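INFO  loader      accepted 1 record
INFO  loader      residues=748
INFO  predictor   begin
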Amino acid sequence: MNIEKILQALLGRVNYTREILGNKSRPELDAFAKEIAEFPEKNSDLPEDAAVRAVESLDNRLTTMEAAIDAQLTAMDKVRIVRHPQRASLKDILENVYDNYTEIGGQDEHSIDPGMLIARAYITRRRGKKIINQPVMVVGQEKGHGEEFRNGGSIKPWGNSKALKYMKVAALEQIPIHAYVNTPGSYPVEDFPGAAQQIAENIYEMAGLDVPIVAIFSEGGSGGAEAIGMADKRLMLSHGYYSVISPEGAAAIEGRIKSTERAPVELIESCALAQRITAQDNLAGGYIDEIIQEPPLGARADHFDFYKRVREQVIRATDEVALSVRGVRLFRAVALRHFKKNTDVIVRWSLNEKARERLVAKRFRKYRRMAQGAYQDNRSLMEKLSATSSGIVSNTASIVQYGLIKPFKHRIGRITEEFLDEVHVITAKVDAFFRSALKKVGVTSFQDKQKEMELTGLSKSEPEAVPLTNGTGYVSPQAREDREISCPHSKKRGCLDIWARDLFTDYAGVCPNCGYNFPMEYQWYLHNVFDQGSIREFNRDIASGNPTSFPNFEARVDAAKEKTGLQSSCLTFNASLEGLRLTCATLVANFRGGSVGAAEGEKFIRALELAQTKHQPFLAYIHGTAGIRIQEGVNGLIQMPRVTMAVRRYIEEGGLYIVLYDTNSYAGPVASFLGCSPYQFAVRSSRIGFAGPGVIKETTGLEIPPNYHNCYKALSRGHIQGVWSRKDIRKNLHQAFLTIGGRNLYYR
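INFO  predictor   done
INFO  writer      dumping tokens
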């Protein structure tokens, strides 16, 4: 036995422990390191077998010490564990959990994004003499062991695009997906396709993949985790973390730390604790289903018993997903439940068509149930009963009108059209002769006039709209200032100064020279875009709270409620636009920057469900959003997939979903339920992106140009489909609803 090599390994374990503890002073570790260093000199005269026993004693003592330290780990210690270069990587898992695999989509630094690893793998299971090879698609962020080209698992848009491509291949081949989440967050680039829009596409598409998906979380950082993290079964390593933002990022925001400074260690530690980011916290919150136990101080590359546990739990999770949507499963389900390590129970992972439909529906229900206790429902009992009864009536009316009557009318209409088309073939020549004769004498048939009206029906002239001025409904406070306003582009474009009362009334906050759109209050839109007196708000009393008991946050939420008169940053209402009834959800920048938490997500989902029931088009007007509310932790982060699934269901049912951005819109909402809309528009001078300039500099060290998040940049890469002046919003929205929605406005 090489005693010197063993001593070096023991010293390596001591140094590893110091590093994950943030190099805090631990006298017992210092004393143990000193004992290791002095061991060769003090025990040079010992016989070999006695020296071996002495080394084994050291090993046992260190193991006991590691277990004691492991029981005292803080949330931030676990963050340091998952970031450590010795952490078990995805390549280690592929080598030790799966029986065979082939890496696809590029390898190592020659991949389109080496931080995203894709592999077609097999799990071999034996039943007696029979061997069954079960294929899976493995996707995940790969950090390696300190390999710089993998960018620390921070994935660029094309890496997430690669993952989505092969997840779709898995769905096509009807094999399960195993997603290993190990990222501090996505790389915030806005080159095509753009970080936000690619994550939004990933979440939207994963919601509908009809194969079992199992996600295993190690480091789950913000939108980067959600890009591959939507799953039917979500497992988490016991020393991992899953959070809306890194503790350092949360500390920088909470402490208002400048980009040139670093947040104090104490503040970072307190933010990590307050956000409730550990596996145990997430299990208690219902955001993961099971914890995979790791060795003390976290899993490293040579912990082979850990890989065995991962294999057992991943296989069982996939079995449970498959069995949960099958018709006949009684005996195998009982066996799995009562004998969790029973390898004789073989479950086929392929699903028939009905089971695949049930799988997607069950996934929606799973996410719909999340975060139900993370918001405040201040409605009275009578209001709740009224809402429930109203919902029952609306659902019943919808089933009768759209489930029975309308399909029957469509069927009769199709049969009639087919019949008339056949008749037309026979009578076409006779009809053409008579039409020609009538035209020669100057007579136009009624059918010709009717066809002309049908062809121009969508573009015919409408009654004149209400002029786009503030009128008597609302006057911007900015208009009351008796001063001149200078356009920010005056030096470059020669814009003249204009009186505030003229700019914010007659000109609707738009520079008459260059068209720059000054920020306006959300009330301006309510009074100038929608028909007067048509707005009917609902779910007002679903209120933002402080579900994580984040220090000093409750007072800030209460201050926002008092200042704005709103209960959350999301305003949901029914309104009409030129007589067209629609449902609208607005994110208000005045309330905590328009950030989204559990209350906002719930209100957005309920508004989508109402629009689906009433068969109305849906408008998401984003006055401004700073992203997901970091103080709510995963309660806020989970709104990304939750609301996206509601959007997908609404669109699949035939709904028309339009998004309009104003001022500044960033992060989680843009990278999920807003960015997945096929019809997105922006007010001129707005900014749209995944991360703000400060976050980009902090995470990448890059200085971005001033126009990096300009709406025209978003237009050029296809994130949005048009840029509008504020003065044209009413007209353009009406036009969009008519031309995109057609005469039905709801159905495709």
